[in-house]
Task: structure prediction
Amino acid sequence: MIADCGYCSRRKAEELITKGKVKVNGHPVSLGDKCSNKDIITIDGERIYLPRKRSFVYIMMNKPRGYVTTVSDELDRRCVMDLLTEVEERVYPVGRLDRNSEGLLLFTNDGAFANDIMHPSRHISKTYRVTVRPDINDEQLIQLSEGVEIDGKKTLPATVIVKTKEPGRVVLLMTIREGRNRQIRKMCEAVGLDVARLRRVSVGPLKLGMLKPGSYRELTAEELKAIRNAIGKEK
Result:
């Protein structure tokens, strides 16, 4: 309910509940407690309101390098939210791209939609254009494709295509179906490759296309239908 009204992401809402900052009708709540539109929900004493008619927004951005994927940053670094200059609704990022990565990043105020995109069970594919150094051999390609161990757990099989090869530089297209922290970078590091540039070019059927760095737009009806089909939720 908190995420659906656009207050914050589901993960952040869970943190607020766990810290005892959320009350329903004046009583502290725990994870899993139920409520309805008729209940009074407060966070740190401030009441939040669900719109009578939910107006959901779905945005695609070409995130540039140098921006962190957070709503705010305690280190005063540039945030992706600073780029959404003409979005009136309170939206938040769907998943993450680290500070030095770029490319397709989604935003929404639809908590259920965001959760479906990020949930591991959906296996939504994400494709990245990855520039690595110095070179890549067949053994490394096989390792990346079959899965490598990062953070104590093997990654799912990936699709890895060599796009271009130049002296000291190789461009790969890598498609994964899970969303672990800094996964592409860690996979490449695990097989001895240095990532020089990392750009996400698609999420499921959604493609970055010619959208310029720092620019954003709303998803079209066709794109929204396609991504809902990919997560198994036709609406």
Remarks:
- The chain is about 20% helix and 30% strand.
- Residues 159 and 175 are 5 Å apart (CA to CA).
